[in-house]
Amino acid sequence: MRKTLSWVTPSLSLAFFCAANAAAEPMPANPDSALLAVLGELRGTSLPLEVAVQHALKNATSIRRAEATYLAAAGAVRRERGAFDPEFFFSLDYQDREQPTASFFAGASVLATQQTASRTGLRMDLPVGTKLELALNTVRLNTNSQFAFLDPEYNTSGSFSIRQPLLRGFAKSARKGLSHAERALAAEKARYDQQVLALNAEVEHRYWDLYAAERDYAVQRFLRDRATAFLEETQLRTQAGIIGPNQAANARTFLAEQQLLLIDREEQLDRQSDQLASLIGVRPEAGMPRFIPIDDPPSDFPSEPVERLIERALKNNLDLQAAHQDLEAAQALVNAAKWEARPRADLVGSLGGAGLSGTAQEVVFGSDTLRTARSGGSGEALSQAAKREFPNWSVGLELSIPIGFRSALGEQERLEAQVLSARQVHLEKSRLLEEQVRATWRELAHGKSRLEAAREGVEAAQEQMRIGVVEFHNGRSTAFELVHLGADLAVAQRRYSDALVRTAKAAATLKQLTH
């Protein structure tokens, strides 16, 4: 069931023509009943505001786009964090070679070797810029050289190496990609949440526009119906010789105009319904031409000082927070670029061990038969490397100084310009936000006065219409003047409807800006 027309507090006795037709049709006891009857005849799917908002949050394309952008930013953060994940590596290389030789010490006229080399381990980059690598290298060598003491021979070496940049700002440079991505994610999350608030406000705006369009249609249809009755009366009065034919022509012209305006109002009503349907992603039920709003605009709104609202908006507005996060993301790259513009100095070092084993072979050299004391399988070589029976270590410093520093300094200047641009965007948004809050607050603050003035206008137009009808019946007014009074009453009613929904829309906008 439809709610009562709380917006028609100034009674809608549009029936100036109903009064004019008093001889043929008695005036209704409650003039609002005629408008209620028109609204009750409208065909459509009833739609509460809350249900419209729920449909929009589920189906609106703007929400899905914002969600996709947010998910992309989350993927970028995961990618940048993955840069600090340990990495397992493994490589295997097999070589089979035959090499002709001319040296006695080669051990064969054609030296044939089969070598299998592998490298495996873990490497990892730390958020402070340190590069770590733990590696194990193995080589298995088979040869036909008669001077090979081990065949096959197993060579193994293990190492732990480190590289630490000293002049690159440590975490500022190493984490620049992650820091930028994290700030971008925070910005997109704020934009997504702000889009939810904006969508709520937009649905309310469209809903109240549909509400006003529906009432405008009802007013216009009522006018058309009364114009029809008025034309019939003027024709009867003309035939009776009470008034001239020009007044009947005026009534006929007015009826034609109201019929055209009714068509326009119906198209406007359906257009508003279509726009709301596109926004929430749901169409009216099958066979129904439009949505029918069943909620009335609120009329009581809390009043707060504008300065307090501005302070809350600057603190809580998510769009402004997103702009701040964009600024921080750009600043993270600038901080890294300042360090990366310096000469490169890396501390490098390693700690490792080696191992050797294999199947011992007797080597005949002249009249001597020689044999190595080393033997064993590949596991023996691995054990020797792990225990560092043959240790090794190294430490060093690598220095790189670009001549001119143009590339690094140019990149720093480019990024600093981006920070300047982001800072101006943030400042511009904060100023625009304050301007919007002040304008919306004024609109809301004047809402009660605007509504009262519109109500006074309707009451005054009704009184003009009542007097005009009396004067018309007494022959002191013409149909031309009466139809213009009727048009003025319709305009006053539409202004009242506009004032009612305008205040409700301002409240929705203010909520969007300050939360």
How would you describe the overall organization of this protein?
With 515 residues, the protein is an alpha+beta fold. It has two domains: 16-21 and 33-73 and 180-328 and 420-514, Outer membrane efflux proteins (OEP); 89-125 and 130-167 and 344-400, no CATH class. Helix content is 58%, strand content 19%. The chain has helices spanning 16-20, 32-41, 49-59, 61-82, 171-174, 176-239, 245-280, 306-316, 318-340, 378-386, 406-445, 447-473, 479-514; strands at 45-47, 87-100, 110-125, 131-143, 150-165, 291-293, 344-360, 363-365, 368-370, 390-400. Helix 2 packs across helix 6 and helix 12 runs antiparallel to helix 13 (479-514). The longest helix is centred in the middle third of the chain and has 64 residues, at 176-239. The relative contact order is 0.14. Mean pLDDT is 87; it is low at 1-32.
Strand order of the largest sheet: 2-3-4-5-7-10
The best one-word shape is elongated
Query: Which sequence of SSEs, written as H and E, runs from N to C?
Result: HHEHHEEEEHHHEHHEEEHEHHH
Helix content: 55-70%
How many structurally independent domains? 2
Q: Radius of gyration in whole Å, from Cα?
A: 44 Å
Quickly give the CATH architecture of the largest domain: Up-down Bundle
The secondary-structure class comes to: alpha+beta
Amino-to-carboxy terminus distance: 34 Å
The low-confidence parts are 1-32
Give the beta-strand count: 10
Query: What is the name of the CATH class of the largest domain?
Result: Mainly Alpha
Q: What do we call the CATH topology of the largest domain? A: Outer membrane efflux proteins (OEP)
**Main pleated-sheet profile:** 6 strands, antiparallel
* Average pLDDT for all residues: 87
Number of helices: 13
Beta-strand portion reads: 15-25%
Question: What is the fourth-level CATH superfamily of the largest domain?
Answer: Outer membrane efflux proteins (OEP)
